[in-house]
Amino acid sequence: MSKLKQLFRTFFLVDLLEGLWVTFRNQHPKHIYTEQYPSERPQVAERYRGAPRLNNNPENNETLCISCNLCAIACPENLIVVGWERNPETKRKDLIQFTYDVSRCMFCGLCEDACPVDALELTQDFELASYTREGQVWDRQMLEEGPYPVKYKS
Amino acid sequence: MSTAETFLDSSELVLNMGPQHPSTHGVLRVILKLDGEKVIGTECVIGYLHRGVEKIGENRTYVMFAPYVDRMDYISAVSNGLGYCLAVEQLGGYVAPPRAQTVRVILTELNRIASHLLWLGTHALDVGAITPLFYTMREREEVLKIFENYCGARLTTHAFRIGGLQYELYDGFEDQVRVFCERMLTKLDEYEELLTGNRIWVNRLTGVGIINAADCKRYGVTGPLMRAAGVAADLRKLQPYSGYEQYDFDIPTRVNGDSFDRYVIRMEEIRQSVRILRQAVERIPTGPVMAKVAKVLKPAIGEAYVSVEAPKGELGYFIVSDGSLHPYRMRVRPPSFLNLQALTEMCKGALVADVVAIIGTLDIVLGEVDR
Amino acid sequence: MPEEPKPAGPPTQMASTLWEGDLPTTVKAAFGERLLESACYVNQNFFVVQADAVIPLIEFLKREVDFDFLVDLTAVDYPKRAERFELVYILYSYSRNERIRVKTSIADGVVPATATTVHTTANWLEREVFDMFGIRFAGHPEMKRILLPEEWVGHPLRKEYGITQMDNNWVKENLGIESGQ
Questions:
Q1: Is C156 in contact with B55 (Cβ distance < 8 A)?
Q2: Which residues of C touch A (CB under 8 A)?
Q3: Can you give the pLDDT at residue B116?
Q4: How many other C-beta atoms lie within 10 A of the C-beta of residue B200?
Q5: Which chains have at least 3 CB atom pairs separated by less than 8 Å from chain A?
Q6: Higher-pLDDT residue of A107, B5
Q7: Looking at the partner chain, which of A15, A31, A109 has a beta carbon nearest the beta carbon of B152?
Q8: Domain boundaries along the sequence of chain A
Q9: Which domains does chain C have, with CATH numbers?
């Protein structure tokens, strides 16, 4: 009996038709997942760990960074360099320079976990390509302003 | 086969497969010794992706090394992270809080599904079925979205920290997992419709790359390969960790140990993972997600070997501590490495085209083989 | 983070406790003086034996007590000890659902016996130990490097090998660049 059934299936290509039915069903537009990048830009998650950013205080536009160097210590790849100077008047450390080598970064998020004042943050920007290796070493200005990806019109 | 009396010299032919061959899933070079189309000997040349993870481990602190383990088996990074965190916790005497343990189980099982889905898609592609790849990638995307929402990264997640979790769950996590479970089961039936009854698929895999239970033990093979050979070996059941003993699930086994059985085992494992997910997501306890772990983590002098059931097999970490900030020795027992060792045994007498199918069902990740 | 190889210091003492039970008694009866220690640390049991007793012990454990699965084989480098390398064999028994370790110490240059005669698994694992530490195993079917190129000089997991160190000649010759860094 099963032999006969098998023969029937073989002769009428039932396997093939079953498979084609599956592929046919999946043609429905609601099953389409392809994103039309770059004309249609994906919405990445809120917690996405992308381009680093050095936050400024929105009220007076001064940096939030207190030059504590904890991010540099926490970084496994040792790619953060914090340059600071002791301000003789306020007795505080003033941030002079902040270098972040994005080319070696693995976006593990340990630096933002270590930051006590939420100054360093990994943001939702994910377009980090550049033409040179040097372009991947971000200075303080770049970190505060963020990358400038080209916007394509749809 | 004697060569002397034949007109055409049928002596052995040495064929290089790889290191850049699409079916080797990375940079694996297999030197095949052929007699006609029959494989009479194989030799694997590995190490193209060697990055010295164990050496890096000795030069980083315990906390800093965690992101590196994600880069060994990069398609199941969460399992790697879980194993590493459990090993350091064992060494340092920490226990993750119950909430963290449950979330860890959920993410690890999601990762297992993602890993098996990627395997299914690429393996089907290797043996000639192109369509499943698009579908499995689509479902895998759902898992990666959950990871992205939870910890901000899709592939190399760095989701767990020593002592628990860094991130609290986001709103809608449970619902997203529930929806995924529902969807996954219907989609699995769809894959089975495409493949399990497909005569080409069945004929291509049945009886190919047989390895029996005794050989599995001899060669150190673990994971789905061993279960396909009939040994119900799963560390989640044998030596439960992270609260796996609370969940009701089965260890699927088959008897033949051929490529088709390995396919069936992995499909069944996805179903079992969904079962675990459904139980776990209903009982996420409240409470803290992080145990009290010293900021400067210095485990006492000693050593520990902790292993978890990664999607590929037994993934173990052997850590020796000398009481300092850095591990004194960081040894990783990679499942892919030892599974690959059995390739020689499995390829004996196979045809050249079958080697592709065998490497496919081994489910190796070269990042883990070479470390 | 640190670029320099960290100063290597052997652990002075592991706070292990004595491992008591049937298995240590059986092994003690069979091996006597050659079994140096049977201990337990964080609920993980291990034997420490003399170097010449390792393979007989593994074989004994496989034959008599059903530890039929070699999980892992690795080495640890303690440059300050007289017997520099510690070989670690991790064994598992499916019937007993138990995992144990067998450890031994050997000096640099000593050629220990291979475990491939007992467990075929050891083949690649011993090759990796040779590759990383430079320990040769006597009787191994194919004692050559596995992860690094055949002509590479040096064994990276030895403690004196720096984290950024490499075989510069090999890199120059084969890759045509000055340095891999």
A1: yes
A2: 1, 3
A3: 92
A4: 14
A5: B, C
A6: A107
A7: A109
A8: 52-145
A9: 17-147 (3.30.460.80), 148-181 (no CATH)
pTM over 0.80: yes
CB atoms B150 and A76 under 8 Å: no
Which pLDDT does position B10 carry in this prediction? 62
* Nearest-CB residue to B328 (from C2, C11, C145): C11
Chain A residues in contact with C3 (beta carbon < 8 A): 78
**Residues near A24 by beta carbon (within 8 Å), at least 6 away in sequence:** none
At B9 the pLDDT is 58
- Dihedral angle computed from the Cα positions of residues A58, A62, A68 and A69, in that order, rounded to the nearest 10 degrees: 90
Domains in chain B: boundaries: 51-334+352-370
Element (H, E) at A97: strand A93-101
* Domain A52-145, CATH class in plain words: alpha beta
Peptide bond into A38 cis (omega under 30): yes
Asked if C149 lies within 8 A of B47 by C-beta distance, the reply is: yes
Cis amide linkage into residue B19, ω under 30° from 0 = yes
What CATH number labels B51-334+352-370?
1.10.645.10
User: How many residues does this entry show for chain A?
Assistant: 154
pLDDT category at C7 given cuts 50, 70, 90 is very low
Whether the per-residue pLDDT at C4 is higher than 60: the answer is no
Query: Which segments of chain B have a pLDDT < 50?
Result: 1-3
Of B90, B333, B341, the CB nearest to C72: B333
Q: Mark yes or no for CB contact C121/B218 under 8 Å.
A: yes
pLDDT of residue A154: 55
Supply the pLDDT for residue B117: 92
Phi, psi at residue C131, to the nearest 5°? Answer: -60, -45
Q: Read off the pLDDT of each residue in C38-61 and give the average, rounded to a whole number.
A: 86
Average pLDDT score over residue span C32-59 = 85
> How many residues are listed for chain C in this entry?
181
| Phi, psi (deg, nearest 5) at residue C75 | -135, 155
Inter-chain residue contact A46 with B194, CB threshold 8 Å:
no
pLDDT value at C9 more than 50:
no
Gap from B95 CA to chain A (nearest CA, Å): 21
Q: Is residue C1 over pLDDT 70?
A: no
User: A76 CB near a chain C CB, below 8 Å?
Assistant: yes
Across the interface, of A15, A31, A110, the residue whose CB is closest to B64 is A110
B/C interface, count of CB pairs below 8 Å: 111
